[in-house]
């Protein structure tokens, strides 16, 4: 650990002592301090009820860890917007951007002005915008008066991905943009529900700017707590890494693809990508596209369930949530998250994602680890429906049902088999009865390639900005023109995208056309549900992603047979809920390097010794969250693969 990091830890400990004795989270008679590392919601509530801990003390404990561990984690010789190089064992994560402290408290803690709640309101003295310490003090006063918690998340400390509106904290989706008021006028519905349940919003988490990559112009580059020279896992990386390093209790992530589960996987956490339509997307920058969803990232399955119980349900501001009506269990999601047996359940193995012949050496150890996890599921009593090491769980079913369900999308893809003069209806009928006639059989690995949409991003950016009502940034054109952008090595093989060019591409369409994408999604969802029903499956399982965390400046792992460098996301974007749970750690990895003489300009090198997290996914029918929580908690209770990152341990051990 670097000297500057040790100095930050010492300062954080000193500040805890100075701010109301917050470091002493239990009374002297208890003989020890409350241990914040790996503390769950239940742990925190037990400590509060027994008067071993106050919400104010809890916030200060987390602030000390933020001060110690949230510094810059890459070399930035030209500043935050210039090229960066990674640092091994940096002792810092850069997971959080804006800290919810008024100016006096922020300065006392030693956080610089870039961590301020607002860059456009230097005074920040509005009494209607209490900071985290003021909220905590009010919770403490209420508990002292009543002896009761104000709600199911009383005092629980959150970071919120900076896509979601928080009326008291700057919200720019990681952009360095010239809003007249960098605070939105109101909370996103999800954030409002958290606060009403007693949660404390301590910080906005860093993100891949506008929900892509692992870097933002305002926040900078994020790093992985299990190896700081490696990638944090995508746009929700700040949320997942802040949870992994115990800077907060839980976080809210967002995904349009795998960016709830992929960062949770690479940060040894639990992330739930819930059914699309179960949680409101209101108050999200650029949010609203069909695939977008918000969800909880925590360290345990039960904590994810506790958060889900608060944020799930219908919101008239998000029309997709109408599908949640009647689908939220009356007994509450946490009741399903304490399972110890899987007896009576049928779980299918998606071998399409685990066939080593189709991928590379970079995939192999993860597949082996998930093989062991499947054996654990069998020990827990589940019936495992497994097509075999080189089999395909859904192929027979897909061949029969997908051509008809896709219909015109399918026939356009194969003009030789479906010429303009042919009777397409009868050809599709014949394929239903004889799937051998199906050309170029589609697998579930191909689901994301068939259809696109036009104008959706522009529509939702402009709708959000109109609702926000900022005096300076009124539409996407303003946002593009009135922002600063980081500059690094852009290209198709990098994970630092050219943000400005991406926004400019979003801004080009003059029409909104999502018909093919929506039809493709509906057809695939219906087909997969049919396949699961035919096999009488309660859920399916597979690796959350095959490729371990890559080096920050390494080329992006090329797609191979439908496998991207990301988590497996294709089923999830079709509306299905999925949850990732820690499944173990690698012993070695293969890293990708540039080589002009190799095919595609890159090649794998290794193996390199590396202990990096691996996650296992469970996926169920839409609104099958209770089933997922049951399976995930039973597996978690039996295996206990969650391990705190060693470089970011308890502060008292680092003195």
What does this protein structure show overall?
The protein is an alpha+beta fold and 655 residues long. The protein has a domain of 337 residues: Amidase signature (AS) enzymes. It contains 18 helices and 19 strands. The chain has an eleven-stranded mixed β-sheet, sandwiched between helices. Strands 1-2 form a two-stranded antiparallel sheet. A two-stranded antiparallel sheet has the order 5-14. Helix 3 packs antiparallel against helix 5, helix 11 packs antiparallel against helix 13 and helix 11 runs antiparallel to helix 17. It is globular. The N and C termini lie close together (12 Å).
Fold blueprint:
Blueprint: H1 3-18, H2 41-49, H3 55-69, E1 74-75, E2 85-86, E3 96-99, H4 103-109, H5 132-146, E4 157-161, E5 176-177, H6 189-196, E6 200-205, E7 215-216, E8 220-221, H7 237-244, E9 250-255, H8 261-266, E10 270-273, E11 293-298, H9 301-311, E12 346-349, H10 361-379, E13 383-385, H11 395-406, H12 408-413, H13 424-433, H14 456-468, H15 476-481, E14 483-484, H16 499-506, H17 515-534, E15 539-543, E16 578-585, E17 588-594, E18 602-609, E19 613-619, H18 625-639
Briefly summarize what is shown.
31% of the residues lie in helices and 13% in strands. With 655 residues, the chain is an alpha+beta fold.
Distance between the termini: 12 Å
H/I helix tally? 18
Strands in their spatial order, largest beta sheet: 3-6-4-9-11-10-16-19-15-12-13
Q: Can you identify the CATH superfamily of one domain?
A: Amidase signature (AS) domain
How many E-type strands? 19
What multimeric state do the chains show?
A: single chain
Mean pLDDT: 92
Assign the CATH class of one domain: Alpha Beta
The secondary-structure class comes to alpha+beta
Biggest sheet overview? 11 strands, mixed
* Proportion in β-strands: 5-15%
Give me the CATH fold name of one domain: Amidase signature (AS) enzymes
Uncertain segments: 18-31
**CATH architecture annotation name of one domain:** Alpha-Beta Complex
Shape: globular
Helical percent range?
A: 25-40%
The rounded Rg comes to 24 Å
């Amino acid at each position: 650990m670097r000297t500057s990091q040790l100095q930050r830890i010492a300062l954080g400990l000193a500040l805890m002592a100075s701010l109301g004795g917050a470091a002493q989270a239990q009374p002297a008679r208890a003989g020890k301090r409350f241990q914040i590392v790996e503390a769950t919601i239940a742990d925190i509530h037990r400590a509060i009820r027994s008067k071993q801990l106050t919400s104010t003390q809890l916030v200060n404990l987390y602030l000390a860890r933020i001060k110690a561990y949230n510094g810059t984690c890459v070399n930035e010789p030209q500043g935050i917007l210039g090229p960066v190089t990674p640092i091994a064992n940096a002792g810092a994560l850069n997971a959080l951007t804006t800290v919810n402290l008024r100016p006096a408290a922020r300065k006392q803690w030693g956080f610089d002005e870039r961590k301020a709640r607002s860059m456009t309101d230097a005074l920040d003295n509005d009494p209607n915008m209490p900071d985290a310490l003021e909220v905590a003090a009010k919770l403490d006063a209420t508990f002292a008066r009543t002896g009761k918690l104000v709600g199911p998340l009383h005092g629980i400390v959150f970071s919120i991905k900076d896509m979601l509106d928080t009326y008291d904290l700057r919200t720019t989706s990681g952009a360095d943009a010239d809003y007249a008021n960098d605070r939105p006028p109101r909370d996103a519905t999800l954030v409002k529900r958290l606060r009403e349940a007693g949660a404390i919003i301590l910080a906005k988490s860093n993100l891949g700017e506008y929900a892509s990559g692992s870097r933002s112009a305002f926040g900078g580059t994020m790093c992985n707590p299990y190896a700081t020279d490696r990638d944090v896992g995508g746009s929700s990386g700040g949320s997942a890494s802040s949870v992994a390093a115990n800077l907060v209790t839980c976080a809210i992530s967002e995904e349009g693809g795998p960016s709830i589960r992929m960062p949770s996987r690479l940060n040894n956490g639990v992330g739930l990508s819930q059914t699309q339509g179960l949680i409101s997307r209101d108050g999200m920058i650029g949010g609203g596209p069909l695939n977008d969803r918000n969800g909880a990232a925590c360290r345990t399955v039960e904590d994810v369930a506790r958060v889900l119980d608060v944020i799930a349900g219908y919101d008239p501001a998000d029309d997709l949530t109408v599908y949640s009506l009647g689908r939220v269990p009356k007994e509450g999601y946490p009741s399903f998250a304490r399972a110890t047996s899987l007896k009576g359940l049928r779980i299918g193995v998606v071998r399409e994602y685990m066939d080593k012949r189709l991928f590379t050496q970079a995939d192999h150890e993860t597949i082996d680890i998930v093989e062991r996890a499947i054996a654990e599921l069998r020990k827990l009593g589940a019936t495992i429906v497994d097509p075999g090491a080189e089999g395909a769980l859904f192929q027979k079913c897909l061949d029969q049902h997908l051509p008809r369900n896709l219909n015109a999308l399918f026939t356009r893809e194969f003009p030789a088999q479906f010429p303009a003069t042919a009777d397409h209806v009868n050809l599709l009928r014949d394929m239903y009865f004889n799937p051998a006639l199906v050309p170029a059989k589609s697998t579930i690995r191909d689901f994301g390639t068939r259809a696109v949409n036009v104008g959706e991003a522009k529509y939702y950016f402009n709708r959000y900005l109109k609702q926000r009502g900022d005096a300076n940034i009124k539409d996407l054109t303003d946002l593009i023109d009135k922002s600063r952008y980081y500059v690094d090595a852009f290209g198709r093989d990098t994970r630092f995208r050219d943000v400005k060019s991406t926004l400019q591409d979003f801004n080009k369409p003059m029409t909104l056309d999502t018909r093919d994408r929506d039809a493709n999604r509906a057809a695939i969802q219906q087909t997969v549900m049919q396949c699961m029903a035919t096999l009488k499956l309660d859920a399916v399982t597979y690796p959350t992603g095959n490729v371990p965390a890559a080096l920050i400046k390494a080329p992006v792992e090329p797609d191979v047979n439908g496998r991207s460098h990301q988590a497996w996301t294709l089923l999830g974007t079709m509306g299905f809920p999925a949850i990732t749970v820690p499944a173990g750690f690698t012993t070695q990895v293969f890293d990708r390097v540039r080589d002009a003489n190799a095919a595609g300009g890159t090649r794998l090198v290794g193996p390199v010794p590396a202990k990096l997290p691996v996650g296992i996914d469970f996926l169920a029918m839409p609104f099958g969250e209770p089933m997922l929580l049951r399976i995930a908690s039973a597996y978690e209770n039996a295996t206990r693969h969650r391990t705190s990152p060693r470089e970011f341990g308890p502060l008292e051990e680092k003195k």
